[in-house]
Write a structure and sequence with these properties.
By secondary structure, this protein is mostly beta strands. It has one domain: Electron Transport, Fmn-binding Protein, Chain A (Pnp Oxidase, Chain A, Roll), CATH 2.30.110. The chain is 12% helix and 37% strand. The chain has 4 helices and 12 strands. The strands form 3 sheets. The chain has a 7-stranded antiparallel beta sheet with strand order 3-2-6-9-10-5-4, with helices on one face. A hairpin with a 5-residue loop joins strand 2 and strand 3. The two termini are 20 Å apart. It binds flavin mononucleotide.
Amino acid sequence: MSCPRPIAWTSTVDPEGVPNLAPFSYFTVASTDPPMLSLTIEKRDDGAPKDTAANIARTGEFVVDIVSEALGEAMAATSARLPAEDDEFAAAKTSAAPARHVVPARVAESPVSMECVLERSLPIGNALLVIGRAVCFHVCPDVMDEHGRIRHDRLRALGRIGGRYLGTADTFSLSSGRAGPDGADTR
Ligand SMILES: Cc1cc2nc3c(=O)[nH]c(=O)nc-3n(C[C@H](O)[C@H](O)[C@H](O)COP(=O)(O)O)c2cc1C
C-alpha cells in the first residue's frame, strides 16, 4: 500500500523467556476506549507462524514500541530472520527496559511503548490478526507538550511506504467540515 503506515516494533518472549523483537506495519488503532491496537502478522512462506505470532499466542502478552527516526536502523535489523533462540535486542544493539504489567521488555530507547495483553486473535487469510489491549503506556516527556499530548514533530516516528520509509516531520492541516465545538477531529 503506497501510503505511510506506522510501525509496531513488537517485543515478545517465548515460553522459556527468550526475547524477540520484530517490526510490523500492518498496524493501527482498533479501539480508543479501552485502548486497543491491531497487528496483522503473516505466516512464513512455509506456512509456519512467525516467532512474534507464536509467542503472543502462547503467552498472551506483547509490547509495541514506536520507532523514531533515530531507531530506524536498529528496527530494520530486527526484521531479519534469526533463530528463535537469538536475543534480538542484542542483535539490534538496543537496551531492554522492564515492562510494568507484562513479561516482555520494552525498548528503552523508544519514545513511546505500549504494554499489551492479547484481547483476541483471528486467523485470517495468510495471517493472524492480533488485537491487543494496552494496559500501560510509557511516553518520554521530551515528545509531549505541556498538556501531556504527544507532539508528532517531537516524536518523529518512522512510517513505512511501498517498502521504503518516510519521516513524519512535514504535516499540514485541511479546513475540515468535521470540527466540533471542541475543535477539529484529531484522529
Ligand atoms: C518496516 C517493516 C514492516 C513489516 N511489517 C510486517 C507486517 O505488518 N506483517 C508481517 O507479517 N511482517 C512484517 N514485516 C516482516 C517481519 O518483520 C519479519 O518477517 C520478521 O522476521 C518477523 O520476525 P519474527 O519471526 O521474530 O516474528 C515487516 C518488516 C519491516 C522491515
